[in-house]
Design brief:
By secondary structure, the protein is an alpha+beta fold. The chain is built from nine helices and 19 strands. The strands form five sheets. Strands 12-18-17-16-15-14-13 form a seven-stranded antiparallel beta sheet, with helices on both faces. The mean pLDDT is about 95. Bound molecules: FE2/S2 (inorganic) cluster (FES) and fe (ii) ion (FE2).
Length: about 375
């Protein structure tokens, strides 16, 4: 983040702290509850959002060495990410080219030289080449050169592995991020190390995961026993950058900066800064580490959230590990609180109680997010 941007954000927060105000939309808004359970809409989201837009799927520290790999369900596509011998990264559809079985079943592993299909034993190398066919005399006409694994466009940027879900798609992460690209480069995300990953399967529509992050209005009540005492009640900044957003949640120490000269002011020291990278990645910048969350739809009313923390360096001692683990535990407790409530929302939207949900003026991040989803699904971006 540019220093001028940081100082500007600090000024905006200090003004809100002085007036006990927060960023607001001009008016409240609403969303039909069917957005969370309509099958046609969900199919369109999968096709037009998860089938067509770039997204971050992993952190580089998950696959540091040649042959290290992870598999994931990115949208409805099974994906295999492999570190190459040259230090690059390959992304493939995790689907065998013989008769379409899932190729790799492990969630991840190290130093793999071959990927062997469980079904009939076809073998691929980390560059996706088909290098082995048991009973190959049965395939006399097969051209192995065009039966390697299907590649997805892949790029490493800001420490994350980004893919394009369409093998023919154009992947240009810098232009996808727009002005946030420059801002994210200041956090040195590529030098961080992933710590304490946890998977949260929950019975909620994927959009409810994003909704829980998009406002600070709920913190005082929903997180009263965990993180609420650390933050101002309902004071924050929300800014939109095309499809993406940045939210600033000031901590109760923020007001101390009012008497400090500009050169001593630090946004990160006194606030959490959250980046919502459309459609399903969130990076929560905290004073000395980050939280990272990716939410993948598992059917219309299911989601799998991959959550982890990025540390500036791997903890070398038990003391350091305990320190970070404590931070993770607090973060994940708050997530549990959010997701438990979201599960009630998912159940609630299917009742006759509401035709629409209401977004208050301070919940404008939700309005922006759903407007973007609707714009893409309704075809105005195509
Ligand atoms: S489907 Fe993979 S070897 Fe047959
Ligand atoms: Fe929350």
């Amino acid at each position: 983040m540019e220093r001028s941007t940081e100082l500007e954000l600090i000024k905006r927060v200090l003004a809100h702290v002085a007036h006990k105000s927060t960023d607001m939309a001009a008016a409240s808004s609403s969303l039909p509850v069917s957005r969370y359970y309509d099958q046609d809409r969900f199919a369109a989201e999968q096709k037009l959002i998860f089938g067509q837009l770039p997204r971050a799927v992993a952190h580089v520290s998950q696959i540091p060495d040649a042959g290290d790999f992870i598999t994931l369900e990115a949208g409805e596509q099974p994906v295999l990410i492999v570190r190459t011998a040259e230090g690059g990264v390959n992304a493939f559809l995790n689907v065998c080219r013989h008769r379409g079985a899932r190729l790799e079943w492990d969630a991840g592993g190290c130093g793999r030289k071959r990927f062997t299909c469980k079904y009939h034993g076809w073998v691929y190398d980390p560059d996706g080449a088909l290098v082995g066919i048991p009973g190959s005399e049965g395939f006399p006409e097969l051209n192995r050169d065009i039966h390697g694994l299907t590649r997805l466009p892949v790029e490493i940027r800001h420490g994350f592995v980004w893919i394009h879900p369409d093998p023919k798609g154009d992947l240009d992460v810098a232009s996808y991020l727009g002005s946030l690209d420059q801002e994210l480069s200041g956090f040195d995300l590529g030098r961080h190390i992933q710590f304490s990953p946890r998977r949260f399967p929950r019975k909620i529509n994927w959009k409810l995961v994003i909704d829980t992050f998009l406002e600070g209005y709920h913190v005082r009540t929903a997180h009263q026993d965990t993180i609420a005492p650390m933050f101002y009640d309902n004071i924050g900044l929300s800014d939109q950058f095309g499809l993406h957003q940045r939210i600033v949640f000031p901590k109760i120490t923020f007001g101390e900066m009012i008497d400090q000269p500009e050169e001593n002011r630090s946004l990160r020291q006194h606030a959490n800064v959250l980046y919502i990278l459309f459609p399903n990645t969130m990076i929560l910048v905290q004073p000395d580490h980050m939280g990272v969350f990716h939410g993948y739809a598992d059917g219309i009313d299911g989601v799998v959230v991959d959550a982890s923390v990025l540390l500036p360096e791997a903890p070398a001692t038990d003391k350091a590990r305990n320190y970070w683990q404590k931070n993770v535990d607090i973060l994940f407790s708050a997530l549990d609180e959010d997701f438990e409530l979201a599960e009630f929302v998912q159940a609630g939207v299917k009742t006759a109680a509401n035709e629409h949900l209401t977004f208050g003026r301070m919940e404008k991040g939700l309005r922006w997010f759903h407007e973007n989803v609707d714009r893409i699904v309704d075809g105005q971006d195509n």
